[in-house]
TrEMBL record:
InterPro entries: Histidinol_P_phosphatase_HisJ (IPR010140), PHP_dom (IPR004013), Pol/histidinol_Pase-like (IPR016195). It comes from Teretinema zuelzerae. GO terms for molecular function: histidinol-phosphatase activity. This is Histidinol-phosphatase. Keywords: Amino-acid biosynthesis, Histidine biosynthesis, Hydrolase.
Length: 263
């Protein structure tokens, strides 16, 4: 049974509830031995994806809540941010999030793909040229050395419900890039709560997707389980749900705290 999760949000991202202390309390009650808190990062321009992440002005509160919660926690707690990738923000991640703020780790969570000045939410994308753009962006992100784990790497399969040759190629490219960069990939517990969709072999969760993870395991990827908790009660339960998914398809995940080098 997994005893850690490193994908945890707070109310500051504007679409979750609870504070760090609430997640730690629930994780401890669930038998966790380690927790990582990684809310959606702020950007220097608060107009960038404003409805789904904290503002720069909220960072002092985030750091204060984390410091207080860590001091009172009976288990080790690490903290960081979940970040998109765009070349314009590389120095922001390196010099500000990690440098100035002192983030202990960064999660790569790619939700958007740019095209013609617009950003499209990848679970809604069904256009193969946009998929190719998304894959290229993902490969670029994984090559930067900025990220410590890769959240829901199969998120794009929410829109691409059929495993065509092009979709399989996208899966392979992403998996190979994560392996080359030595970045653990997470089976995401939140996706298993989403309404099921029709896939090649019947109804399935939008993510995680069995075929992707079988390919990842066969390729030798480091596979972890995270909750992607947006409510305190999901702090460790989501990771356990992800673990059950992995075990059911013959995959034994690595403990997240170990894969990220914290234990």
């Amino acid at each position: 049974m997994v005893h850690s999760s490193f994908h945890t949000h707070t109310r500051l991202c504007k679409h979750a509830s609870g504070e760090p202390a609430d997640y730690i309390r629930e994780a401890v009650a669930g038998g966790a031995s380690f927790l990582g808190i990684s809310d959606h990062c702020p950007y220097p321009d608060d107009s960038v994806w404003p409805g789904s992440r904290m503002a720069v002005s909220s960072v002092p509160e985030y750091l204060g809540l984390l410091e207080k919660a860590k001091a009172a926690s009976p288990i080790p707690v690490r903290w960081g941010f979940e970040c998109e990738w765009h070349p314009a923000f590389g120095s922001w991640y390196r010099d500000v999030l990690k440098g100035e703020y002192g983030a202990e780790y960064l999660v790569y969570g790619s939700h958007w793909v740019p095209d013609g000045g617009e950003f499209y939410y990848i679970p809604d994308v069904t256009d193969e040229p946009l998929l190719k753009r998304y894959v290229a962006l993902t490969l670029e992100a994984l090559s930067t050395g900025l990220y410590d784990c890769f959240a829901h790497p199969d998120l794009f399969l929410a829109g691409f419900t059929r495993m065509t040759s092009e979709v399989k190629a996208a899966c392979r490219d992403i998996i190979d890039a994560a392996i080359a960069a030595k970045i653990p990939m997470e089976v995401n517990g939140l996706g298993l709560l989403r309404p099921q969709i029709q896939g090649d072999n019947g109804m399935r969760s939008p993510y995680p997707v069995r075929e992707f993870w079988e390919m990842a395991a066969d390729a030798g990827a480091v596979i972890i389980c995270n909750s992607d908790a947006h409510q305190p009660e999901e702090a460790i339960e989501g990771a356990r749900r992800a673990e059950r998914f992995a075990l059911d398809i013959g995959i034994t995940p690595v403990e997240a705290s170990t894969a990220l080098g914290f234990a």
